[in-house]
Structures are given as structure tokens and as C-alpha cells.
Amino acid sequence: MGKKGGGRVRVKQVGGPKMPANPLADLAVPPEEMIHLPPKPDSNAGFLIWPMDQTFSMVYKNFSAIYPNYLDSDKTVKRGRRIGAKDAVPEPNVQDIHEALVSLNIRHVVQPHKLYSRDATSHWDNPGRVLVDLEGAVESGVMEMKSDGAFDLDDAMPEMGGDNDGKENEQGEGRGKKQLLRQLASIIRGLPSRQKRLEEKNKLLEEEKAKAAKAEKEAAKTKTGGGGGGGGNRKKKGKKKK
Asked: How far is the C-alpha of 80 from the C-alpha of 75, rounded, in Å?
């Protein structure tokens, strides 16, 4: 409002200056439709040390890493499979490896948030790795030690020229680290917890397929049954001729 005083009008401005309209405002995604990704977990958190009574005393910096990809029959050699597909097992995870190592009484550390660099899909599909005490594996008779006191790791990388589907590095039939991987895969194949997990996963997949088929059927039914509005069957109204 203006105020008269001495022939002059004083105008009081309310609010700040108007900002120019954003031409891209209509293209902005509403907050309720935004996708909020969960925060990235700390790769150095959530460790599980077995046996648990050695949680504060175990030194595992020299343990050997095993990623689920090493045992996964669904993975190719390029994506990290270290044993033949016939000896591997589909979709193993760190929990399966943990249970298999417990059955062999081998010390290990589960690191659930570590990522395998050779397979990006495993970062969200099947993360984690297990650090294994190879000395414990030797004591259990799963691995052997060379005459010079070194571990027979048998950890040479396979040829990258092709997938070879289980034919790579046949010299891995020795009792090196690959023999440990084969032993783990054999144990994992019969784990009850694994069987239950896969059954639940298959059940969810079947439910999703059924929902998708139902939605597709309803959409097709709506498309064929509606849209015309029945306008062609209506009679035209008008004055009757006398």
C-alpha cells in the first residue's frame, strides 16, 4: 500500500523480485516418483570370522580369497570361473561357501560386501568373498603342500581366448586350490539351506511370470472389448415424418 505524505507516495514492496520461470520445470521428476538407491555399504564392514571365538585374535591378512564366481557354473571363464562347469554349481553365494568350509573345519572370514572386479553383474547380484586359511585346508587333507613348503595353489589364470566350458587348465586336477574349490562345490550342491533358497527364488519367479501373464491377458481383453463405445449401434434421433 502507498502512503501519502507531503504530496509524495511511498510504495512498499512486498516479497522479493520474481525469478524467471524455469522452462524445464515440466520435465522434472516429481519427488514421489524418484528412485532412491540405498547407500553403498562399507566393504570393510560386516565381517564374519569363523570360528567366532577367534574374532579378535585371528590374523587373516595372508588368507586366500574365494569369490562365488570361482564356483559358479553359470559364469564363463572370462567372468571368473576357476573350475570346470561340470564340477561347478549354479548360483553359489558366500553363505554357501561359509557352510561348506565349516563342514571341512577350515578357518575363514566372510566379507559380504567385497566386490569381484571381473564381473560387474555380481556387484549387485551376488557380492562378497571368503578369505580361507590354506594351512587349515592342508591340515584337513583338502590341499597339499609342495616339497619346498609352498602351497600348491594351482591358481594360474585360464586362457582368455574363449569360454572353453570346463575344458580349461586340465592340469588343475591336482590337489591344489582348485581341488579345494571342487570340494566346496560338491558340498554346496547338497546343502539344505541352498535348496530352500533356490526353491523360494523359483517360486517368486513363477509368481512374477503369472502376474505378468495375467496383466497381459487383461490388457488384451480391454483392448479388444472396449474403445468402440458402442456408437455404431445407436439409432439416430430425429423428428418422425408425418
From this structure: 7
Phi, psi angle pair for 163, to nearest 5°: -80, -35
pLDDT at 170 (0 to 100): 39
Q: How far is 115 from 43, CA to CA, in rounded Å?
A: 8
In sequence order, the 6+-apart residues with CB closer than 8 A to the CB of 65 are 129, 130, 131, 132
- All 3 cell numbers of residue 54? 577367534
Q: Which of 44, 62, 40 has its CA nearest to residue 111? A: 44
Pairing, β 8-11 against β 64-66: unpaired
C-alpha cell at 181: 574349490
- Residue 12: pLDDT band (50, 70, 90) is low
Asked whether the predicted pLDDT for residue 127 surpasses 50, the reply is yes
- How confident is residue 78, by pLDDT bands cut at 50, 70 and 90? very high
Amino acid identity at 79: R
> In whole angstroms, what is the distance from residue 61 CA to residue 194 CA?
29
The pTM for the full model equals 0.69
